[in-house]
Amino acid sequence: MMSRREGRSGIDHEDPIKADEEEGKKAEGIATNRRGIMAVIAAMVGDDQKWLFELRRRRAWSKAANPTMLRFTRPLLQASKLSTGIYGLAVHPNPLPELAKTYESTLAAFSSIPQHAAYRQGAEALTLRKLKIVQDANGDIAQVEKQLDEGQIEQAILIAKDELGLVSKMKEWKA
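Given the sequence above, the corresponding structure tokens read:
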């Protein structure tokens, strides 16, 4: 335990100003070494906490490196998806072609609804936008999920199939 007159370095000084000057010189000398600011901070807190600053420095480096690493491994992670995490919703083996086919079927089904119907105009515009997102993705499932903002790609397929079913029901209800 340090006494009131003891500096951070553990040296007992009669004059607190002199102790601060010595601490400043020690800190200045440390700041010129390779590690820079981390070494200054570690010297000020003492040997018992140096490991903490080293750990934080390494974590900051690893967090900065992760996005690059994930960019290259994204296709591998998509191929190895085992579960959606949603009860009753299985992983689709090839979701993008299925989603595009469903959107195209929905657009074809709109032909039986009159052009002036508000439902057809709104739903057709939305389906065309979603189809364009799927076609422009170049096989990147994560990009499609982000742009559609409908959850996982399997959920987007269910939503598209529900919309296709709704088109036939709208024909019945309007007839």
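Confidence is low (pLDDT under 50) at residues 30-34. Try to locate this feature in the token string yourself.
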